[in-house]
Write a structure and sequence with these properties.
single chain, mainly beta, 15-stranded mixed beta sheet, 348 residues
Length: 348
């Protein structure tokens, strides 16, 4: 570090001497310009008219006029030439204004409406109704009367009699059953139990609209099937539940099976309401059975519906008499069994 100091001092002295010489000769002043010149950008300027007087063209002499000798008088300044008449202006043509550029404020020019040839009117066919899941295979008679013996328990103890009246006309049906106790049962059960189911007959079989039950003079359970709203209104303060397609009531379901039963169908579902709730049973085809009824033997189809915790429903359909229910058995979860056995069937 100490060795570099004499060298730096010598450089400083040499630089000072050169600056003194440049200042003495005047070269230091002209070496650095006052301003740095940037490239000048070219621009267009209007032309300036010349202030020189225009030179008049020489006058050509007529051939018939004799030449005039030059006079010593001072030359006469040339007469100014008459200004040429301006050329006739062409007929004024109004310029056609160009259409303004399209903008949000300026609406587009209206487009001429094309002429459309009239086409023949096309008729729109109404949309067919959805095919029911289990369409009816057969129609029930217009009027049927069935008298059942009401048997209680496995011992087939006759506790009463039930009469069913089925009527169908103009796409409507009415089904009424009346039950009365008989024998010893009349000592414990008094009065008559009446059940009514009314509704429509369509491609899916029976479509109940209302069901109710009377015990004596008092109305017990009722249900209203509101198909348009897809709601089933239950009795009392139970409110309503969503309807299931082709749902039935406790009175109509055996006749729905009569209209829709298929020997080739192994299993199917059917919802049944007793007015207090709606339960779905899974039915299965048990098989063909010969059923011994009072005074006759009948070829039947045996169907059984079951639901966990709700017992079973068994129905025997007469294959030779419009598949009408000739025997119906209910078995609840407590083991209580009631069987309806047809003693008389009248079809009109």
């Amino acid at each position: 570090m100490l060795a570099e100091r004499p060298l730096l001092a010598a450089l400083a002295v040499s630089l000072a001497a050169h600056l003194a010489i440049l200042a003495a000769t005047g070269r230091l002043r002209t070496a650095v310009p006052d301003e740095i010149g940037f490239p000048i950008e070219a621009s267009l300027a209007p032309l300036v008219e010349s202030r020189q007087a225009p030179v008049a063209p020489a006058i050509q002499a007529d051939a018939s006029t004799p030449p005039v000798e030059a006079q010593p008088e001072p030359p006469v300044p040339p007469l100014p030439m008459p200004a040429p008449e301006p050329p006739a202006a062409p007929p004024s043509v109004q310029p056609v204004p160009e259409p303004p550029p399209p903008s949000v404020e300026t609406p587009p020019m209206p487009t001429p409406t094309p002429v459309v040839e009239a086409k023949p009117e096309v008729k729109v066919e109404p949309t067919p109704e959805a095919r029911p899941a289990r369409p009816a295979l057969r129609s029930l008679p217009g009027r049927v009367e069935i008298r059942y013996a009401v048997q209680y328990g496995d011992a087939a103890f006759t506790a009463g009699e039930a009469r069913y009246l089925w009527q169908s006309q103009n796409g409507r049906y009415s089904l009424v059953s009346t039950l009365e106790a008989k024998g010893l049962a009349s000592l414990f059960v008094s009065g008559r139990i009446t059940q009514v189911s009314e509704g429509e007959v369509n491609a899916g079989g029976l479509q109940p609209e209302q069901y109710w039950e009377h015990k004596g003079e008092r109305r017990q359970d009722a249900a209203r099937f509101l198909w348009a709203q897809n709601q089933l209104v239950l009795s009392g303060n139970r409110g309503s539940v969503a309807l299931i397609p082709q749902a039935q009531d406790l009175l109509s379901f055996p006749f729905q099976l009569a209209a829709t039963a298929r020997e080739t169908e192994s299993e199917f579902s059917l919802a049944v309401s007793n007015g207090r709730k709606l339960q779905t049973y899974r039915f299965k085809f048990i098989g063909e059975e010969r059923l011994n009824l009072p005074g006759r033997s009948v070829e039947t189809l045996h169907l059984q519906g079951g639901r966990e915790g709700a017992g079973t429903l068994d129905v025997w359909l007469d294959r030779n008499t419009a598949y009408l229910p000739v025997q119906v058995r209910t078995l609840d979860q407590k083991g209580k069994q009631i069987t309806l056995v047809a003693e008389e069937v009248a079809v009109r």
